[in-house]
Design goal:
- The chain has about 170 residues and is of the alpha/beta class.
- About 40% of the residues lie in helices and about 15% in strands.
- The chain has one domain (about 5-170): Rossmann fold, CATH 3.40.50.1820.
- The chain contains 6 helices and 4 strands; from the N terminus they run H-H-E-H-E-H-E-H-E-H.
- Strands 1-2-3-4 form a 4-stranded parallel sheet, with helices on both faces.
- Strand 3, helix 5 and strand 4 form a beta-alpha-beta unit.
Length: about 170
């Protein structure tokens, strides 16, 4: 949660009056439990959506999920399988081939955003993810940004915020 990408995105969303709920996966920070290889962490995402839908400040018809790096890996199946989630953002998603194939059937509004200098998600992998993703989708490459987005946090957060605003205004 204390990551520069997560903090920049949460701040940008809040500045646009979009509720931003950030949490640690099980076994991270002060969260109970232990790492479960992405499977248990999907349950954490679903539990977060469950909780959000009980909050009076949250429009449960306009829910979106953003995941960064490992968070993108976990967010993908959780969001695509949950009809409550209307929009999904994957930031620097280091997806394996089986995970990329999940995007073929995911008809959610999607933003996939990567940096051109990402050492974990190559430009070729990012373009493959884009090609394999079902519509509706938006694909953004940020020139010069690496996997950690140092110096590009604001540009990334602005694109994600515009995506969610646009997506939610369609609903």
């Amino acid at each position: 949660m204390n990551n520069n990408v997560v903090l920049a995105l949460g701040s940008a969303l809040a500045d646009q009056s979009i509720v931003a709920f950030m949490f640690n996966f099980r076994g991270v920070g002060r969260s109970q439990g232990q790492f479960e290889g992405g499977i248990g962490e999907q349950e954490d995402v679903i539990a977060a959506v469950d909780w959000l839908t009980t909050q009076s400040e949250v429009d449960r018809h306009r829910l979106g999920i953003a995941g960064y790096s490992f968070g993108a890996i976990v967010a993908l199946p959780a969001a695509c399988d949950d009809e409550r989630v209307k929009a999904l953002t994957l930031i620097s998603p280091p997806l394996e081939p089986s995970q990329i194939s999940q995007l073929k059937d995911c008809a959610k509004l999607k933003l996939i955003i990567c940096g051109t200098e990402d050492f974990l998600v190559s430009l070729q992998q990012a373009e493959l993810i884009n090609r394999e993703s079902a519509e509706p989708k938006q694909f953004e490459l940020i020139a010069g940004a690496d996997h950690f987005w140092w110096g590009y946090e604001v540009a990334m957060a602005q694109k994600v915020t515009v995506f969610f605003n646009t997506s939610f205004n369609r609903l």
